[in-house]
Amino acid sequence: MALAVPIVAILGRPNVGKSTLFNRLVGGRRAIVDDMPGVTRDRLYGEGEWCGRRMVFVDTGGFEPTGMGIVAQVRKQAEQAMAEADAVLFLVDGKDGLTPADSEVARLLRVGASRPILVVVNKIDTAKQAALAAEFTRMGFTQLFPISAEQGQGIGELLDAVLALFPGAAEATDEVTPTTVAVVGRPNVGKSSLVNRILGAERVVVSAEPGTTRDAVDTRFEYRGRSYLLVDTAGIRAKGRLGHSVERYGVSRALAAVRRADVALLLLDGVEGVTDQDSKIGGEAHEAGCATILVVNKWDQRKGDADAAEAVRAQIAEQFKYLAYAPVAFVSALTGQRVMGLFDLIDEAAGARARRIPTADLNAAVRAAVARRPPPAEHGRPVQVRYATQTGVKPPTFVLFTTTAGKVHFSYMRYLENAIRDAYGFRGTPIRIAIRGRTERGQRG
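-> structure tokens emitted (445 positions)
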């Protein structure tokens, strides 16, 4: 039976241009590209479209037949990508020529892959270089495509060949938008372990070495009939401690993941406690308008400490005053303790972030709040709130129209925010309030 949306894995030894090709196929800079070998570690998914048909492409780490530690885990990720793929693009470097490592990868692909394999000879930038591709016929594969992933040459012919393998591939259609959940935090707090526990599989590389995850890795899945996009991210270090360019890219992608997420799971280390860097990461989520859940991980290591939870809650209250709306969960990614219970909080926070309040109900709540505590006078003149309306969601955004121009003190803005939260909840999500007078354009709250 023809497949609805074929999955196409990109495999090859390190530094042959897999991430560059992946970015080209999905139409954006999704994967980190760097001249240093081994930048990609986890497998990264992205959707592309060709001739009105959808395909899912999978970027993988460099396939090295031998090696231990991280190298072995990266190889395992590539093998898993190959196992779930409907076709494989075996990428080689035309300028390097056929290497022993290519031949070994080819041997493993022939043994382990029962799906079509297309040999893609990259870095063929000119017509004169096309002859370089002929050498790779010695590997014994029948379909060979010279391309330049960097310049886009030969990509159309390659996609035509891929699409021909799946005549029943699904046409591009609108789908239900999943709830995007970004797992963020400083290095080595257990982000990838939490993702693996949620997904019930070794979806991403886990290691005790800080900085294992270098890209934002998306995984779409369903749980209890709802669709989610789970994003594992690189650990976010303080700016002054960032090293090489790859690490800076990883942090940049993590922050970008927060900006596109509906909900951020901000992981905290239950053993080390809350740090200033945790607070800064929370600030990024708050400013991005992302709903946030504070997840205290490694709680299995505090077993038997009766006062531990209260001590951590006190730390959180002190460090995250601006995230007072964020629920707190105590979990263990290692044992699975309370991990799946996070989805009750995720659904609640995502729902609150998208909630719209009827104008009449909103005005009733605001009038009641103002009656209890009128706004402070402006230059001796009383300030009256005439009207309130909600102008947006994700996050919920409100505008209050007043009788006078001028700023309202931040403490009163906080009072109004708390009044709206008391009336309508909004647990887990930031809200925005703007004040508009007769002559001013607006003030954010």
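The radius of gyration is 26 Å.
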